[in-house]
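Priority: medium. Attachment 1 of 2:
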């Protein structure tokens, strides 16, 4: 398959998930904390499944700790995201996530001296 199919599939699937999340938060009255917990649980089981399929490669304890912290932080960003979806339209909330490259640029300059 050509590369541009995958390049276009990513924002398309991201858009679908944003509308599903907005529907769940607004119409089904799902609490942001519950949604964040469910996303974390699903991510955990997908990660364990991938590890199982890869025959559980051995990692150092520090690497495992860093991966767990990274996964927790990845799920913590969902809490304010779902709260913002609960309070406003998805078309206003989702574009604010495009600020993340700017924040990474500033953070890498300040903390990593890049």
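Attachment 2 of 2:
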């Amino acid at each position: 398959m050509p590369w541009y199919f995958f390049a276009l599939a990513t924002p398309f699937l991201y858009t679908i998930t944003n509308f599903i999340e907005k529907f769940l938060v607004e119409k089904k009255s799902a609490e942001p904390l519950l949604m964040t917990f469910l996303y974390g649980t699903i991510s955990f089981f997908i990660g364990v499944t991938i590890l199982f399929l890869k025959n559980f490669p051995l990692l150092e304890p520090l690497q495992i700790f860093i991966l767990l912290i990274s996964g927790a932080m990845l799920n913590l960003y969902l809490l304010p995201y779902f709260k913002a979806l609960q309070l406003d339209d998805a078309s206003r909330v989702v574009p604010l996530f495009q600020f993340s490259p700017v924040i990474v640029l500033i953070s890498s300059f300040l903390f990593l001296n890049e």
